[in-house]
Amino acid sequence: MHIILIDDHALFAKSLEIALEGTPEIERFQSVSDVAQAVPVIKRERPDIILMDIHLNSSGSEDGILLAKKILHEVPEANIVMLTGYDLPVYRYEAQKIGAKGFLNKHMDPDEVVHALLDIQNGLLHFPASIEYIETLTDSEKQILQLICDGYKRKDIAGILHISERTVSNHLQHTFEKLEVSSSLEAVSKGIQLGYIQPIFRTH
Description:
Layout: E1 2-6, H1 10-20, E2 28-32, H2 38-45, E3 49-53, H3 63-74, E4 80-84, H4 89-98, E5 102-105, H5 110-121, H6 139-149, H7 154-161, H8 165-179, H9 184-194
Parallel strand pairs: 1-2, 1-3, 3-4, 4-5
Helix pairs in contact: 6-8, 6-9, 7-8, 8-9
């Protein structure tokens, strides 16, 4: 089995290579840290499995998802497996939605990783069972929820997004219904738990 790892954390890439070293099922292991080189390398090498960190360049929570979509557009037959240290239901959902073949936690035992990769190479999917069903938030709902998390009031959000305060309230109401909560505080808490928003307070 030929594996390519796309991960901009050199230390993790080396650690995984060492952990998998000597595994008879893995004939070749490569790592790519430059995201811009990912598609050309995959087109040239045609690996059996592409392991990809869901967090790349620390620029957001779903940048690995976006790169995976690009790879699948260019190489539709690619077996992409998302890799993360943040095993959140929304990430698993997004990975499944784009056509990834698996979702692995970085804290898994190396033997478990190899077993999962062999299953995927043999045509099986490998996704941990979600603890709950997630009704997807729209981009607008996620954006507004993040701004609420960052401490902005509805009036401020309306100004930032150039929409009416009523529209902000409507989006929030839909968010409450989807997350099955009854307040902004509960929505923010559950949004962080599920991976929709990041608990980072911006300066404003």
